[in-house]
Amino acid sequence: MMLFDQKHKEPKSGVELQGNSITIRAGVGTPTTINVLAFSRDSTLLAAGKDFGRVVIWRAQGGTFLRAIDTGQGVVTAVAISPDNQLIVTAGQEGQNIKVWQISDGRLMGSLNIDRPPVHSLAFVLNTRTLIGAENGAPTIVLDTASKDPVLTFPGEWSPILSIDGQTLITVLNDKIIVRDTSDWQRKREIPRLTKSGNPLAVDAHSDTLIYGDFFDNFGFAAVRLSTGDLLPYPRPSKMLKWNPSEGGFASFDPKAGLVFGHSGGKLWAWDIHTGKTCVSPILYSESGALSPDGSILVGGVDNSIFAKEKVKAGVALWNVQSILKACSM
Fold it and tell me: pLDDT tens digits, residue range 118-130?
């Protein structure tokens, strides 16, 4: 299934093909590009952050268009839906704030001021008021969407990721990984960082598993024991899977199936951490993707890039995970 934006007047793209030459206007995006995708906690809503400040929300089951919000934030870099499905927060490359919107009518509810935009990740914790944000180059901050103020700041800690249940926060601090309980924000433990360029990508505290990705090909992806930081004795995935955090992408862990789903190098992929088997999609010319929290739906942005061999309509591709596993014999 494909999900599409509602028909609207699109601004002129900053990337144009003129004869055999490509012209790229600095600071100007492409109106059809989808930079980030995020599900609601109950997996019923899906939001896409696009260039030119546009955010689109669909009902995930059936793909019904729900609402578009023009945020005025330029290239949208992060979105998150509140656990009660009432609010959506957005961040982009323009402006000094995170904006809070009401989903029902698209009304702006307020702004959360930050120091160093852009924000590259947003995630709600266990309630509608508490939000985790990561600014450009750190620190990780905890924000209150009601008071519009920062509650806590973790200096020097970056790359925040939340566990599936929202109870555990993982951040990186120099040569170590910090594990926190979101109920009181206290450090539960510290574990060694495997390499200087590697970062945690997904975590499940119940199975004591941390999925780790490294910028360089000599390491790639690995599964790590969360309690100790030791590598788990699982086969590494195929060298076809590459991770470059500067290009965006995502990785998410489905502990029930022991599978990691990700989007990097313009492709979606699945990795069985127990067997090392991988399954990779054709190139989608995008770096946005997400796995629904219930593990049933995988989505990825499709960009009608000027480099694409076949011209397609830009949008969001949606797959049933069970169908992927069957097709991939996983």
Answer: 888 999 998 888 9
CB contact set of 246 (below 8 Å; sequence gap of 6+): none
Q: Which two tokens stand for residue 318?
A: 């949606």
* Chain-centroid distance, C-alpha 34: 11
3-class DSSP state for residue 323?
helix
Helix ranges (H only) for the chain are: 321-327
> What kind and span of H or E run contains 213?
strand 209-214
For residue range 21-77, what is the model confidence (pLDDT) as tens digits? Answer: 666 666 667 778 899 999 999 999 999 999 999 999 999 988 999 999 999 999 999
* Environment class of 155 (CB within 10 Å of its CB; exposed 0-12, middle 13-18, buried 19+): exposed
Residue 196, classified by CB atoms within 10 Å of its CB into exposed (0-12), middle (13-18) or buried (19+), is exposed
> Nearest CA to 70 among 57, 92, 54?
54
Dist. CA 178–CA 157, nearest whole Å = 8
Q: Is the full-model pTM beyond 0.85?
A: yes
Gap between the Cα atoms of 126 and 260, Å rounded = 23
C-alpha dist (Å) from residue 217 to 177, 220, 273: 21, 5, 18
Cα distance between residue 81 and residue 128, in whole Å: 9
Helix, strand or coil, per DSSP, at residue 113: strand
Tell me if residue 23 falls in helix, strand or coil. Answer: strand
Domain boundaries, the chain: 249-330
Q: Is 20 exposed, middle or buried (0-12, 13-18, 19+ CB in 10 A)?
A: exposed
* Nearby residues of 257 by Cβ (< 8 Å), 6 or more positions away: 295, 325
Q: How far apart are CA 247 and CA 84, in angstroms?
A: 31
